[in-house]
Write a structure and sequence with these properties.
Helix 3 (66-76) runs antiparallel to helix 4 and helix 3 (66-76) packs parallel to helix 8 (172-189). A six-stranded mixed sheet has the order 1-3-2-4-6-5, sandwiched between helices. By secondary structure, the protein is of the alpha/beta class. Helices cover 48% and strands 10% of the residues. It is rod-shaped, with a radius of gyration of 42 Å.
Length: 263
């Protein structure tokens, strides 16, 4: 075999390979193992299946609008029992988690007079009925003075169905999210006249506060006559205000006679 090396150079190269441990001839030409490995990696990359693009991260769910949720739930309630269930299932009002009971109503459904109070107190929370504490007992005496009673002729509810901690006033956002239920409650009960007792009730149904200024002046709420009155709890604390409350009761009595005659 022709070779560019002379005999002595070829022998020296062979002896060097033997000293390095070479004991077998594989091919006639040298192989660049580094280049071969690079070619193998490139070929494997070309033949590998295409990796699917990772799915895009899901979009963050839109923030829940408690008022919109309340409006939908209230509108779907076809009667008072369904409304009670819808309110009990409504989880966006934090007051629910600290209350013992849902305070839905008391009195006579379908009565001509519907009283809307503010929020439950301790006794109301325990019993699950509005106006059953000391203020409620005084309210019963007030109603009896003009021939009314929750057992026969008055229906009662509150703006808030759950007791606020330490009997604090409900916050504006709490009132706003429960207002659709209150409006639906009034529509389903369908009274002739509303009695709005206290500042929270006036805020919810009339959009104003200042019950001492508003009391005794007939207004309209939810499409029907509405009489703002001071809350019985206030009257117990301020006996001098009972005289004005008596005038308001007489005005309510006159309005009921008037609407009865119109009917």
């Amino acid at each position: 075999m022709d070779s560019a090396l002379d005999w002595h150079a070829a022998r020296a190269a062979l002896e060097w390979q033997l000293e390095m441990g070479v004991d077998e001839a594989i091919g006639e030409t040298p192989v660049d193992r580094f280049a071969a490995e690079s070619a193998r990696v490139a070929a494997a990359a070309q033949s590998a299946p295409t990796i699917a693009t990772a799915p895009a991260a899901p979009m963050r769910a839109e923030a829940v609008d408690p008022v919109a949720e309340a409006e939908a739930a209230a509108a779907a309630a076809y009667d008072l029992d369904a409304l009670r269930e819808a309110m009990a299932a409504f989880d966006h009002c934090a007051l629910k988690r600290g209350a013992r009971n849902l305070v839905f109503c008391d009195g006579t459904p379908g009565a001509r007079v519907m009283i809307v109070g503010e929020a439950p107190g301790r006794e109301e929370d325990l019993q699950g009925k509005p106006f059953v504490g000391q203020a409620g007992q005084f309210l019963d005496r007030m109603l009896a003075a003009i021939g009314l009673s929750r057992a026969e002729s008055v229906y009662i509810t509150n703006v808030m169905p759950w007791r606020p901690p330490q009997n604090r006033d409900p916050k504006p956002d709490e009132i706003a999210m429960m207002q659709p239920f209150l409006c639906r409650h009034i529509a389903l009960a369908d009274p002739d006249v509303l009695v709005i007792m206290g500042n929270i009730s006036a805020q919810a149904l009339l959009g104003k506060r200042g019950i001492l200024r508003l009391r005794g002046h007939w207004a309209e709420a939810e499409g029907r006559p509405a009489l703002p009155m001071t809350h019985p709890a206030y009257l117990l604390r301020t006996p001098a205000a009972k005289r004005e409350a008596w005038a308001d009761l007489l005005s309510l009595q006159a309005k009921l006679r008037e609407t009865a005659n119109q009917g």
